[in-house]
Design a protein that fits this description.
113 residues, alpha+beta, 2 helices, 4 strands, 23% helix, binds zinc ion
Length: 113
């Protein structure tokens, strides 16, 4: 997400916050994946989300839509820690993990079982 009150025509890296932990991941060289409408999940959150949703097959059910794909799914989701609380669906956690895992820009590996 974008920091509140910024100039949308001149977005700086430190204006871009992870929707799930609220950190300025982009400016701190933490890997990030973009979702719809400027949503961002950082590699740290993705590690936790992937581990919980895919490896542990856990997660919570919610009526909320996924912050990344803006769709509601019946699959469990992982929820972030900052208000307004964002959730990421299993499909997005998998897709974003695949993107980061493949990216040559980042040293990010999918969590292993
Ligand atoms: Zn994060
Ligand atoms: Zn999703």
């Amino acid at each position: 997400m974008h920091r509140e009150g910024i100039n949308d025509n001149n977005v700086q890296p430190e204006d871009i916050l992870c929707d799930f932990c609220g950190n300025t991941a982009w400016a701190n060289d933490i890997p990030c994946v973009e979702g719809h409408q400027g949503s961002i999940v950082c590699g740290n959150c993705l590690t936790v989300a992937y581990t919980e949703l895919v490896l542990a097959e856990a997660g919570a059910s919610t009526e909320e839509t996924c912050r990344m794909c803006l769709e509601h799914r019946d699959d469990p989701v992982w929820a972030g820690a900052v208000e307004p609380v964002a959730s990421i669906c299993k499909r997005c956690a998998k897709q974003a993990s695949a993107v980061l895992n493949k990216s040559k820009q980042w040293e990010w590996a999918k969590p292993a079982p």
